[in-house]
Design goal:
The chain has 179 residues and is mostly beta strands. 0% of the residues lie in helices and 48% in strands. The model has no long low-confidence stretch (mean pLDDT 86).
Length: 179
Amino acid sequence: KSTFAGSVGNSANPVYRTTDGLGSAGGMHMGPMAVAAGDGMTMYLLNAGEEGQPALRKIDINTGKALWFHSVGGFGAGQSMAAAGDYAYMIYGANKVTSLVRMDAKTGKNAPIGARIDPIALGVISTHGLVLIGNRAYYSVPKESRIGVIDLSTGARDSDLTVPNVHGISSDGAGDLLA
């Protein structure tokens, strides 16, 4: 059974702006770029472009209402999204830099990766996938035929994996990366 949980444009629940800022999700461009499952009762919807309202929103799947928004910066570009446990992770591009940010899944506020408070700059890249396995984040960079790896306990980069023309990536649920 499929259940509608939200879409792009002014189709938030409610469809108008509210005093708490969680209504209308207008000002999005280029449609959704990534989605991620939350805790079984929530989902994350990341839009490719931001203008009026923040590009990332966490949605209650039972009500369709946004629980929080997270900005990628005015005219920033959402790229990839993943969530596990207490954290949600997003890769976005803003001001000619692509970055990985960890957020508290309950509040949407930035959370440190290791001792790093600020998002981790990944360079000027375009990603097509983000997967969390153990204490590692893997992100695909198709134009460079590689998968980047970040150690989530320290925030340090690990050695890249070379995969020709890699796009979407996933996990098999047993700890293996699928590319």
